[in-house]
Amino acid sequence: MSDVLDPRLFGSVFITLFVIMDPPGTVPIFLGLTSAMTRKQRNRAARQAILVAFGVIVSFAIFGQQLLNYLHISLAALQASGGLLLLLIAMELLTGKAEDPQPSGNSKVNVALVPLGTPLLAGPGAIVATMVFVQQSDGTVADWTAIALGVLAVHVCLYLSMRFANVIHRVLKDSGTILVTRIAGLLLAAIAVQLIADAVTAFVQAA
Fold first, then answer.
1. What's the pTM value of the predicted model, to 2 decimals?
2. CA dihedral for 46, 52, 55, 57, sign (positive or negative)
3. Which residues lie closer than 8 Å to 150 by C-beta, 6 or more apart?
4. From CA 35, how far away is CA 43, in angstroms rounded?
5. Preceding peptide of 119 cis, ω within 30°
6. The dihedral sign for the CA sequence 149, 17, 25, 185
7. How far is CA 38 from the centre of its chain?
8. 23-33 vs 7-21: helix axis angle to the nearest 10?
9. In principle, which of 58, 77, 138, 146 could form an S-S bond with 10, CB 3.0–4.6 Å?
10. What are phi and psi of 42, to 5 degrees?
11. Tens of pLDDT along 107-122?
């Protein structure tokens, strides 16, 4: 056991969740969902969305293992299903199959909670990836700290992206945002294939 924080684990968590949750890609979606809001309402929506997403991710990180044990699901099965799920998300990013968000202002539905907080930010891909990292960790304080800091860092990036969405969108333009999304899809596809390959290896070794 080591009490030294593992920078590789932190980097893996941060990069994986960054690619999945895609802070630059949330900019046009966030602007579309909050187009009828004032600047103050938009800032509040950004805070609420981040709190909801962070709460969902942390809940699954803490209680995910107990859920897997209760359902008798192995890590290899989780990795395989997670890899397939991430691959589907990657295909959507690469092909541009994104839903056109409907603008919402002072309606009764709080778009910061649903669909922005979840499932757009804290979606199945991010949840599965976080659970896999927790399952693969040694359970030490250093590993938990690395995972927690990685999750927190990604949510900080998400908040900054939404907080300064107008500025980012003006800088990247539509073409720049699309380019970043395509690159994120390519990286996510590679991560998904690696997860599936690791799962197959684990199944073969267990057989």
1. 0.78
2. negative
3. 9, 10, 11, 12, 13, 14, 17, 133
4. 12
5. yes
6. positive
7. 27
8. 40
9. 146
10. -65, -40
11. 556 888 888 898 789 9
Whole-angstrom Cα distance, residue 33 to residue 102?
6
pLDDT digits (tens, 9 = 90+) for 130-145: 998 998 888 889 999 9
CA distance 110 to 108: 6
Residue 31 tokens, joined:
């602007």
Q: What residue has token string 């990292």?
A: 133
What would the two tokens of residue 168 be?
Answer: 């980012």
d(CA 119, CA 183): 21
Interatomic CA distance for residues 119 and 126, integer angstroms: 10
Q: 30 is written with which tokens?
A: 């966030």
- Sequence-distant (6+) residues with CB within 8 A of 184 are 19, 22, 24, 25, 93
